[in-house]
Amino acid sequence: MQVLIGFESMFGNTHRIADAIASGFGPEHDVTVTPITDIPPDLVDVDVLVVGAPTHAHTLPRRESRRSAVRSAHTRYKDHQLEPTAERAGVREWLAEVPPGCSVQVAAYDTRFRAPGWLVGHPATRVSRALARRGATVISRPQSFYVDKHEQLHAGEVERAQRWGAELCRHAVTSTNTRHRDLRP
User: Fold this and answer.
1) What does the alpha-carbon distance between residue 54 and residue 15 come to, in Å, rounded to a whole number?
2) Which one of 9, 79, 119, 182 is most buried, by most CB atoms within 10 A?
3) Structural domain boundaries enclosing 130
């Protein structure tokens, strides 16, 4: 299977989760982890796409929320290092470019504070819905991975992401095998 895991990350948490999800797929699959803006929106030759984004102001990051995060990075916690792609466009802009007729299997995740989604936002739901409207097959409920008040991942979140990656792999393999059987003459 050709698997792409695209992420938008400011301080590395969403990127770390992407890497953990990738490890859940195992070595028998061609898995690439890359910033979302490096993925062509036409998704040619992709079997599975996983999209991750941080939560900014209850939703997907915007250009201004990214700028604000970059400006305040040095005033936050001493452990904060900006991702090299922090100032680039992100998931919101990439989604706007995905054409209708997208036939890829998808899953989405976000990183956020551990509070009800209705209170702090759950951008992965928005990503899943947007891709489904464009024709993608959603293979898992959107997931959230939690950060603490210092914007560091909670203990156990990386391992939970690995388990979710393995679960996505099982769903995708089953779905891909079924689809290929259905296409046989």
Assistant:
1) 10
2) 9
3) 2-183
Rounded-to-integer distance, Cα 1 and Cα 68, Å: 38
pTM of the model: 0.88
Dist CA 48 CA 43 (whole Å): 9
Q: The CATH number of the domain where 48 resides is what?
A: 3.40.50.360
- The pLDDT-based confidence of 122 (bands split at 50, 70, 90) is confident
Number of domains in the chain: 1
Three-state SS at 54: strand
Of the two residues 56 and 24, the one the predictor is more confident about is 24
Instruction: Evaluate whether 91 touches 61 at the Cβ level (below 8 Å).
Output: yes
Identify any residues that bridge with 146 across adjacent strands, giving them in sequence order. 112
Mean residue pLDDT of the chain comes to: 88
Q: Contact 48/172 with Cβ under 8 angstroms?
A: yes
